[in-house]
Amino acid sequence: MNFFDKVGKVALGSRLRLMTASITDDAAKVYELYGVDFMPKWFPVFYVLTEEREITITEIANEIGHSQPSVSKIVQEMITAGLVEENGKTNDKRRNIVALTKQGLLLSKKIKLQCVDVEAAVEALIAESNHNLWAALEEWEFLLEQKSLFKRVNEQKKTRESQDVQIVAYEPKYHVAFRALNEEWISTYFEMEETDYKALDNPKEYILDKGGKIFVALYQNEPVGVCAMIKMKDGNYDFELAKMAVSPKAQGKNIGWLLGQTIIESAKEQGAKKLYLESNTILKPAINLYHKLGFQKISGLATPYKRCNIQMELLL
Question: What is the pTM of this model?
Fold first, then answer.
């Protein structure tokens, strides 16, 4: 196992495949030992058929967690081997009812005796081990069902890359980026409106001079994200979180989250009690981000934007 010692946990899939191949090879030898003409890959389907008198392809697939095409292929192989028969053919093969033949039922008695010995051998192996692999597999399956390995890797990627993101206060040199990033984002989904031009063309007059703030996300010293905190005249809210935009090439680096957190912390420092924002429900990643930041849906406020169909607030 020197290779796996060198590579480490990144080779998890390769190591599991190697162990699976070894166990599968042994399984074929075990069937041969008991004089059973049987392919190891048939076992999950065969076992379900020993428990159920008649069952459909779809039901088997759901029971063992395999795809329907995979189960259909195995069933056809077992039909050819004389172990399974179709008792209710339909045009939809997934709904075909299958069951064990007399030959299959006789074989099941042999395999049940074999299973007793295999179970005992596995129990003995577990007893020799410091770790219960069977229990660990059950735990890993549960955890991966809650969150896949892909999602876990993606989270780590975002965390690592976000460490290279710097959030800075707006300066005039970032005006072009502030306008361009917002115009690109808005134009991708909607149309630019009069209120957009006011804020983007004159951020100092429209946002900063009125007590608001703008923050810029730098990735490798390039402005790739922006967000504004606009002072509100409405007495119910202190600031509006607005004009958040992230370059498509920089998405997936937690930049929206970092900008949102910066706005929230800045608002708290200024003694704000409530934040407000407007968005559109077609922007699912953005809505998910706002919920993650703690915003809750509200309604009833007048809006200058045609594209707004959801309003949210955050109590600080």
Answer: 0.63
Task: Average pLDDT across each block of 10 residues of the chain; the chain has 316 residues. List them in order.
Answer: 84 92 93 92 94 87 92 94 81 74 92 94 95 94 95 88 89 96 94 92 95 95 96 90 94 92 96 95 94 92 87 95
Select from 221, 222, 211, 215 the least CA-distant residue to 245: 215
Q: How far is it, in rounded angstroms, from Cα 168 to Cα 201?
A: 20
The single-letter DSSP state of residue 205 is: H
Burial of 199 (0-12, 13-18, 19+ CB in 10 A): buried
Helices (H), the chain: 2-7, 12-33, 43-51, 57-64, 68-80, 102-128, 133-146, 149-162, 175-189, 194-201, 203-206, 255-269, 284-293
Picking from 153, 151, 157, the residue whose alpha carbon sits closest to that of residue 250 is: 157
What are the structural domains of the chain?
Answer: 34-146 (1.10.10.10), 160-315 (3.40.630.30)
Distance CA 68, CA 70 (A): 5
Q: Quote the CA–CA distance of 220 and 180 in Å, as a whole number.
A: 18
CB neighbourhood size of 203 (10 A): 24
Question: Which residue carries 């759901």 as its tokens?
Answer: 62
d(CA 244, CA 250): 13
Q: Give dist(CA 28, CA 270) in Å, integer.
A: 71
